[in-house]
Specification:
This protein is 41% helix and 21% strand. It has helices spanning 3-17, 64-79, 119-128, 135-153, 196-209, 231-246, 252-257, 261-267, 280-289, 300-316, and strands spanning 20-23, 26-36, 40-47, 53-61, 90-95, 105-112, 160-161, 170-173, 177-180, 187-188, 191-194, 225-228. The strands form four sheets. A six-stranded antiparallel beta sheet has the order 1-2-3-4-6-5. It has a two-stranded antiparallel ribbon with strand order 7-10. Strands 8-9 form a two-stranded antiparallel ribbon. Residues 28-310 form the Protein kinase domain.
Length: 318
């Protein structure tokens, strides 16, 4: 057999060996692995008929409780409809759904594929050359992220909180439109904590599902008797705004040094660079959201109102 024939057979073998997943009668061919988190993996897949690309999120469920959490995420996707929040194309469960020891099932979520990647990816590229975003671009991106969060916070019949907002959970669609993704941590915004057991449960959940360098201080040490509300997302928004200016959360540097993020968060001290292209009004806006005491932190409407004032001021500068 000549080299060309052997090469052709090898290529055909590679094509045939690609994983094919059937979801509600639609065949998807796995193209490549995109990433993974603590509870899921994401692959780039192609619809075998239309050849359109999608992101396939797989959630491994090792218990009935895991299945409930995955189903809750799917249900949130089905209920939530907003241009700045990702949509669910399709979903299914495969494997055992019975209460059996060591039984495993898997949830499949077909989501849009964003070729531009995430805001986190975009900021990393800009950071290499210290290529700061223009303040008007920052305000535009942040404004649209705020609109998505406002939709969640005003959701009826019950306000929702995202609880894991970060630059890596914001995709960029064509035209640089931010789209909030990953509703795996989404939950009712208001949580009444009654006792040490409730507090520990919420604190453990936050440690599992809320990224440390974007996590609100009240989720690091949950008080035994308190109310946690949607202002956890406002803290995360403050970190996102900081990242839009300086490429990463103010607490990423602390984490990279190996220092305590927890102590840095509750200290209320923000490390703004000495040399900055942004004026004091931008820093004040970030501080406005990063109030350690949640009762002093604004709600989303106040954030949007203050942002609009800043945008008007920026537009007035020739």
């Amino acid at each position: 057999m000549n080299a060309i024939g052997l090469s052709l057979i090898m290529k055909m073998g590679c094509i045939c060996s690609k994983e094919v997943i059937n979801i509600n009668g639609v065949r998807y061919i796995v193209k490549e692995h995109l990433g993974e988190g603590g509870f899921s993996t994401v692959d780039l897949v192609e619809n075998a008929s239309s050849r359109k690309l999608y992101a396939l999120k797989r959630i491994k469920c090792h218990s009935v409780e895991d299945q409930k959490i995955a189903m809750q995420e799917i249900n949130y996707y089905k209920k939530i409809k907003h241009p700045n929040i990702i949509v669910l194309i399709d979903s299914s469960f495969k494997g055992s759904a019975d209460i059996v020891v060591n039984a495993t099932s898997e949830a499949f979520l077909v989501l849009p594929y964003f070729s531009l990647g995430t805001l986190h990816d975009y900021l990393i590229v800009r950071s290499f050359a210290k290529n700061y975003l223009d303040i008007k671009e920052i305000y535009k991106l942040f404004s649209e992220i705020c609109q998505g969060i406002k939709y969640l916070h005003n959701f009826s019949p019950e306000a929702l909180a995202h609880r894991d907002l970060k630059s890596a959970n914001v995709c960029l669609s064509q035209g640089m439109v931010p789209v909030i993704m990953d509703l795996g941590s989404c939950a009712p915004a208001k949580v009444q904590v009654c006792g040490a057991q409730d507090a520990q449960k919420l604190q453990d959940l936050a440690a599992e599902r809320c990224s440390m360098t974007y996590r609100a201080p009240e989720l690091f040490h949950v008080e035994s008797y308190c109310v946690i509300d949607q202002r956890t997302d406002i803290w995360s928004l403050g970190c996102v705004m900081y990242a839009l200016c300086y490429f990463k959360s103010p607490f990423d540097v602390v984490h990279e040094r190996g220092d305590s993020v927890n102590l840095a968060v509750i200290s209320g001290s923000l490390p703004f660079p000495e040399e900055s292209p942004f004026d004091e009004s931008v820093h004040d806006f970030i501080k406005f959201m990063l109030q350690v005491n949640p009762s002093e932190r604004p709600f989303i409407d106040s954030v949007i109102e203050k942002l609009q004032v800043l945008r008007n001021e920026a537009d007035a500068v020739i």
